Amino acid sequence: MRLAMALCLGLCACAAQQARDAATWAPGHTLADLESCMGVPDHQDAVVAEWRYQEPTSSSSLGIGTILASLASPFAVLSGGSTSISSAGNCRAVATLAGGRVTALRYAGDSDGLTGANAVCAPLVRGCTLE
Q1: Which fold has domain 17-57+89-128?
Q2: Domain-by-domain residue ranges, the chain?
Q3: How far is it, in rounded angstroms, from Cα 1 to Cα 11?
Q4: Cβ(55)–Cβ(120) under 8 Å?
Q5: pTM of the full structure
Q6: 10, 73, 74, 86: most buried by Cβ count inside 10 Å?
Q7: What is the DSSP string of 3-43?
Q8: Quick one: which H or E segment has residue 102?
C-alpha cells in the first residue's frame, strides 16, 4: 500500500514538473510549434491562444472493513461506515503571442493537486517537453 502511494505521488510530481518544463520551453517557439504538441487551441486570436482540459472525475470509496483493518481513517466509522474521496480539476493553458512567437505560457483553473502546482495541466503539454 505504501509503495502504491509513493508511486502515485511520484507520478503526480512528474506531472507538475512537465507543466513547469513546458512553461519554460514555450517562450520563443511559434504557435505552430505549440499546436504540434498540444493540438489546435480551443480559442485563438492575434495575441492569445488557449487550450482547455477537464480532468475526468474520479472517486474512491473505502468500506468499513478496510477502515477497521487499517485504522487509517477512524472518522469514517463515525460517518456511517464508509468514506468517499473524489477529485476533478481543470486547466487552461494560455499562450501569449507577439510577432508570431510565444512570449509566455501560463496556467489557470483548478489545476493544483496534492502533489504540485498545475499537475492537472500535464496532459495538455506532455508532448511538448519530450526530447
Answers
A1: Beta-lactamase Inhibitory Protein; Chain:B, domain 1 (3.30.1450)
A2: 17-57+89-128
A3: 15
A4: yes
A5: 0.66
A6: 73
A7: HHHHHHHHHHHHHHHHHHHHHHHSTTSBHHHHHHHH-S-SE
A8: strand 101-108
